[in-house]
Amino acid sequence: MLLDFMDFFTDHSLINLVDKYGRTPIFYSDDYYFTKFLIRNGANINHIDNFGRTLLFYRWPKNEELIDEIFNSGVDINIKDYKGLTAFSFSLFAQQPDVFLKHISKLQEKEIVIGNLYPTSSEAIKKLINANITIRFNDVIKIHYPLILCQQEVLSIKELMAGDIHFSRPKIIISECSNITSITNFDNIFRKIS
Length: 194
Hints:
- By secondary structure, the protein is α/β, with parallel strands linked by helices.
- It has nine helices and five strands.
- The chain has a domain at about 110-194: Rossmann fold.
- About 40% of the residues lie in helices and about 15% in strands.
- Strands 1, 2, 3, 4 and 5 form a five-stranded mixed beta sheet that branches.
- Helix 8 links the parallel strand 2 (about 135-145) and strand 3.
- The longest helix has 13 residues, at about 150-165.
- It starts with a helix and ends with a helix.
C-alpha cells in the first residue's frame, strides 16, 4: 500500500507540489520511510513556506531517526523566517531536543532566539548555554504547557533568566493544547507559582 502511494507521488510529480500555505508534502510527512523516499526523489528539504519557514520549524518530526535523516540530508538550520527566527527558536524544545543539539555545530550564528517553551526547555537551554550559545527570548513567547503542572520547569526558566538569558519584558502566551488560556508576562507567572 505504501509503495503504491509512493508511486503515485512520483508518477504525478507531487514531490514538491505546494499547498496554499506554501508547504510541500515533506512538511507533513511524519513517516521515516516516506520522508526518506521524498528526499531521495528530489524533495526540497530547504523549501520555504509562506511564513519563511522550512520543515524543521514545525513540531511534527517526533522520531529521532527521521530528524537525523533530515539533518544528514543537508537541511539548512540557519534559515530565518520572516520574523528573524530559526528552526531552533521553534522546534528545538518540542520533540527530541537532544537530536537537535547533536547538530548544533551546523548553526552559524551563536545566538538562538527562543519563541516557544515546552516542558523540557530549561534542560535544552542549559545545554545550549554550555555549548557557548547565547540565548535571547523573543518579544512574544508561547508556553506550551499548563503552568499548574510544570511549576518546577517555570522556576528553572526563572533561574536561567537570572543569569544566562538575554531578554526584555516579553509578552507570554500560555496555551493548553491549541487553546490560548492567557496572555501575561514572566513577573505575573512567577508571582502565581511562588
